[in-house]
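forwarding from the other thread:

> can someone predict this with iron/sulfur cluster?

sure thing
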Amino acid sequence: MKYVDEYRDPVAADKLIKEITRLADKLAAQRGRPVNVMEVCGGHTHSIFRYGIENMLPPSVELIHGPGCPVCVLPIGRVDDCVAIAEHENAIMTTFGDAMRVPGSKRSLLQAKSLGADVRMVYSPLDALKIARSHPDKEVVFFGLGFETTMPSTALTVLKAEAAGIGNFSLFCNHITIIPTIKAVLDSEDFQVDGFLGPGHVSMVIGTRPYGFIAEHYRRPVVIAGFEPLDILQSLWMVLKQLDAGDARIENQYSRVVPEDGNPAALQAIGRVFELRPYFEWRGLGSIDHSGVQLTARYAAYDAERKFALPSIAIAEPKSCQCGEVLKGVIKPWQCKVYGKACTPQTPLGALMVSSEGACAAYYQYGGGPRGLVNEHPPGEHAA
Ligand code: SF4
């Protein structure tokens, strides 16, 4: 296929849905429950709701929305640390738009900005470096977050800062790694997933081989998937075909973009600048070993965590927030007690309602709810 319309062809989608239904009905009858397939990536969650894919599927297959939205899994304590840096009188805090709205225990970055903190939205860490060049009297901090997809650009920015001798730039690093996260999800007790739609963007960097353990050790199929409707439907069909055949392999549906070996230059930049943290805290999932990275000692001069005194206090989620259960696929967003009531995209209580890749925001924006029903709080409408 060459043009984007071809990836949205309704006739081809219809054929795939018929095949998915045939296989899912058979597999669900064998299991006595629906087949559970997790899409790991928040980009897939967004596409699934944007194109109404969930409502096209039979009840015999259930899509579980995984933890692949980096904004959504940021714990409250890290947001508080970031706000503390932003409120330092000599600091300029820079970050992507979504991250500015993630609620901390007292306020978000956006609210800190409204109270006078110098917080600026950027489109790339290199924009932050430009700001550092033009404000040599200020400490310019980039609030870096994301999986391996965004890690290379942050790493290259640190390398560039070093090469240019820019000393007033630093990184508040919240980059996270996908493989330990999937492993933690697979090991969690309340978890029943039969197969995975693998993340397309992360895999462009890390390739397909790191997922091998999921097939070998956990005997679950993984299909690396693209983001168009036919990509997602075809990948789902490939997962079901493997399950039907009793296979557990790593397949690459998104081979037009994802090389088997990933991107060696990007991996090299990551390897030069970052090292694994012993553990990292995730919103709703708790602490996961080796699931985050930090700057190596070689680049300590660019580490905001060393330059600023941070509160670094672990803050419990609000009692009414059920983000953790949604992230593990135990409940659907609309089953959270505060969904569409106290928690909306305009007034997010949990981070899953902040980013467009968050499952709750995607449900809300595109009218998600129990299958076949429309959202009782459509986009733009505030609930009491
Ligand atoms: S509705 Fe809000 S509080 Fe509930 S799970 Fe979603 S984001 Fe979290």
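Confidence is low (pLDDT under 50) at residues 371-384. thats all i got for now
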